[in-house]
Amino acid sequence: MRFMAFDRPVLRATPGLLFWRLLGSGRGTSMGLGADPRRWALLAVWREEAALDAFLATSPIAARHRDEAEESWRVRLVPLSSRGRWGGTEPFGPLPAEPGAAPGGGPVAVLTRASIRPSRLVPFYRSIPAVDRLLREQEGRLASVGVGEWPLARQATFSLWRDADAVRDFAYRTQAHRRVIGLTRARGWYSEELFARFAPYGSEGTWDGVDPLREPGGHGRRPGTGRTPRPGRV
């Protein structure tokens, strides 16, 4: 936990690192009140893939992750679409706002992030259990986790899906999720929000004992085959 503070100067000085966030995680699959003090995440946007490779080879942060973690999982992503801002910036650069499909209809990663207005925290968290239950049960979901910068008020969900159709079914065809979307818009729960989709093209390690992108639910495709990342969008 202490490295949430100590790693910040190192990341600020890392060559080629355009945007980053150190994130804690929840205990469940979505944004909830429980925290998991043993599970942490780093979201990083790189100018080019060579900068990421250099970070993994030489950074003390990457070395500590390898040496001290009981389990770790890393995924490389190409942004497909992004709508909204994070801390006042567009972290993935100018992209289409409309959701895009992964090349070849393969797996899709989704990041949803929001700054919740203090006056809306109670109704927001009351809405979470129903959506979290649906997320766990949803056909086509490969993995998901709730993450955040600040307890309670700055929250996000990262999820992996079999394909774009599975994402669409959850987002627009489940009543609980559609209800939350409607309340969010009507009552102004968020002061800032961001929704982004990505195509995974490489993964390493395990998440709860498996690599979710190498399971049968991921179309049996191993990320890193047949995919070429766009420069500056790794």
Summarize the structure.
The chain is α+β, with helices and mostly antiparallel strands and 234 residues long.
Report on this model:
This protein is α+β, with helices and mostly antiparallel strands. The chain has one domain (3-218): 2-Layer Sandwich (Alpha-Beta Plaits), CATH 3.30.70. It has helices at residues 3-12, 49-58, 60-68, 121-137, 164-173, 175-187; strands spanning 17-26, 35-46, 73-84, 108-116, 141-150, 154-161, 190-205. It has a seven-stranded antiparallel β-sheet with strand order 2-1-5-6-4-7-3. α4 (121-137) runs antiparallel to α6 (175-187). The longest helix has 17 residues, at 121-137. The relative contact order is 0.20. Mean pLDDT is 82; it is low at 217-234.
Describe the protein's topology.
Layout: H1 3-12, E1 17-26, E2 35-46, H2 49-58, H3 60-68, E3 73-84, E4 108-116, H4 121-137, E5 141-150, E6 154-161, H5 164-173, H6 175-187, E7 190-205
Antiparallel strand pairs: 1-2, 1-5, 3-7, 4-6, 4-7, 5-6
Query: Can you count the beta strands?
Result: 7
User: What's the number of structural domains?
Assistant: 1
> Strands of the biggest beta sheet: in what spatial order?
2-1-5-6-4-7-3
Quote the CATH topology: Alpha-Beta Plaits
What overall form do the CA principal axes indicate?
globular
Strand proportion: 25-35%
**Helix-strand makeup class:** alpha+beta
For the termini, the CA-CA separation is 27 Å
Largest sheet: 7 strands, antiparallel
**Uncertain segments:** 217-234
Q: Spell out the helices and strands N to C.
A: HEEHHEEHEEHHE
What is the highest CATH level, the class?
Alpha Beta
Q: Report Rg.
A: 17 Å
The portion of residues assigned to helices is: 25-40%
